[in-house]
Design a protein that fits this description.
37% helix; 7 strands; 5 helices; four-stranded mixed sheet; alpha+beta; 123 residues; Arc Repressor Mutant, subunit A; three-stranded antiparallel sheet
Length: 123
């Protein structure tokens, strides 16, 4: 692609390739641009609302959010959706889970993405 990136064409390209969550390095590879231009573009258009920053170095399109389960699995690796969220999803737990809970071998962490909380517990 060209070095002059336009927000609409970037959005269409990402949707066309069904890329829902990406890093600045992924962005750089997809659009054949330098690392500094990719970071600048992502920072600029995150502020204007085209992208949503999930955490440092992880982005998604603001209007086309991937499923919560996909975000949970990529936000903190290795992990898998479990506990209250999984039980609630399959109607085993009658209460709705307020956060997406996952199990991990890493230290316990919590992330806030927009209005949603993603909690990771060490097993």
């Amino acid at each position: 692609m060209c070095t002059l990136l336009k927000p609409l064409s970037v959005r269409q390209e990402l949707l066309g390739k069904t890329i829902t969550i990406f890093t600045p390095q992924d962005f750089q590879r997809i659009f054949h641009t330098t690392g500094s231009k990719a970071k600048y573009f992502l920072e600029t258009y995150t502020q204007s609302g085209l992208f949503l920053r999930l955490k440092k170095g992880l982005y998604t399109l603001q209007g086309d959010l991937p499923p919560e389960e996909e975000i949970a699995n990529l936000l903190y690796r290795p992990s898998y959706v479990s506990f209250e969220y999984a039980l609630s999803t399959y109607n085993i737990l009658l209460e709705m889970a307020y956060s997406v809970t996952s199990a991990t071998t890493q230290p316990t962490r919590t992330f806030q993405v927009g209005e949603r909380t993603f909690s990771y517990f060490t097993i």
